[in-house]
Amino acid sequence: MHIKIRKSWELGEQDVTPEKIFKQRRNFLKTGVAAIAGGLAGGLLSSHAFAAWPKAGDMLSGITKTDFDPGIDLTPFDKVSTYNNFYEFGTGKDEPLYAAKDFQTEPWKVEIAGACAKPGHYDFEDLIKPHPLEERIYRHRCVETWSMVVPWIGVSLADVIKRLEPTSKAKYVAFETLLDPVRMPGQRRQVLQWPYVEGLRMDEAMNPLTMLSVGLYGRTLPPQNGAPLRLVVPWKYGFKGIKSIVKITFTENEPPTSWNRSARHEYGFYANVNPEVSHPRWSQAKERLIGEFFKKKTLMFNGYGDEVAGLYKNMDLAKFF
Ligand SMILES: Nc1nc2c(c(=O)[nH]1)N[C@H]1C(S)=C(S)[C@@H](COP(=O)(O)O)O[C@H]1N2
Ligand SMILES: [Mo]
Q1: Domains, in order of start, for the chain
Q2: pTM, whole model, 2 decimals?
Q3: Separation of 229 CA from ligand 1 center, angstroms?
Q4: Residues framing ligand 1 (Cβ under 6 A)
Q5: What is the pLDDT of residue 29?
Q6: How far is the CA of 239 from the centre of ligand 1 (A)?
Q7: pLDDT digits (tens, 9 = 90+) for 118-137
Q8: What is the model's pLDDT at position 16?
Q9: Site to substitute for ligand 1 among 75, 84, 85, most atoms within 8 A of C-beta
Q10: Three-class SS of the chain
């Protein structure tokens, strides 16, 4: 008999962990009994020195709670995991949930290339495991003016980069998504040039806010959110947050980025959230938090100005949009 075990994001709305319980669980994490919280949540592992990485949608354990928290309500898991932009699985926001359902992410290799001392093909777990697994609650802002508040799980990209020992020639970091039109049916249509590519300037990549995320809401990333490994850059528009990464390259020159290639007058390399710089077809002054009715003012650098404004102090942000 075939017993189908439902993944957490396939659960009906009534089954999804209520927000209140999740908040209690976070308080457990705060007090440092992460192993107990992991146990309550159904995970059996007590640290993230996993024998095998948990499967997509399973609970992660050994997560350190951090102070990153904008202090506003989280966007519920059933919104974060069902309203997605992931063109490899369709252009509709409701398509990735279904089209990515059976996306195979095991094993998952990440190629490290370019100007560094430690190039090679790594199991993605080996890039992540040496570093503390943190929960950070970030504002998540799409260029299309919707936003969410997401409790990401992941590691500091800076920590990973340091271990790879970039050379003085490494001025940028380029990222690439998997290219596989069989596993990613959206790639059979040329809506973008595949694979999806993104990049950061080295100082942006090394900023303490920048994350390599492997999960959200206490569990591994659902496929539609970029399993098993995606970038999170909270002061930039969502399209910088490249999903399902298979290659990281240290480069001397600014790397091409997918949306800039597709429409360079609309999407720049920097893509910093900026209420004053309009998209050519719409204003960026306001945004709608998913789940709320009224729009709110967009915050400069998505509210992370204290941390990142210095990166751009001598730059014309209207020119380098
Ligand atoms: N590979 C890849 N990464 C991607 C995208 C994509 O289409 N393909 N969409 C981007 C956009 S526009 C946004 S807003 C975020 C959405 O992330 P979420 O679905 O986890 O909210 O993913 C980004 N990363
Ligand atoms: Mo987006």
Answers
A1: 13-312 (3.90.420.10)
A2: 0.87
A3: 12
A4: 84-88, 140, 142, 177, 196, 225-226, 238-239, 241-244
A5: 40
A6: 5
A7: 999 999 999 999 999 999 99
A8: 37
A9: 85
A10: CCCCCCCHHHCCHHHCCCHHHHHHHHHHHHCCCHHHHHHHCCCCCCCCCCCCCCCCCCECCCCEECCCCCCCCCCCHHHHCCCCCCHHHCCCCCHHHHHCCCCCCCCCEEEEEECECCCEEEEHHHHHCCCCCEEEEEEEECCCCEEEEEEEEEEEHHHHHHHHCECCCCCEEEEEECCCCCCCHHHHCCCCCCCCEEEEEHHHHCCCCCEEEEEECCEECCHHHCCCCEEECCCECHHHCCCCEEEEEEECCCCCCHHHHHCCCCCCCCCECCCCCCECCECCCEEEECCCCCCEECCHHHHCHHHHHHHHCCCCCCCCC
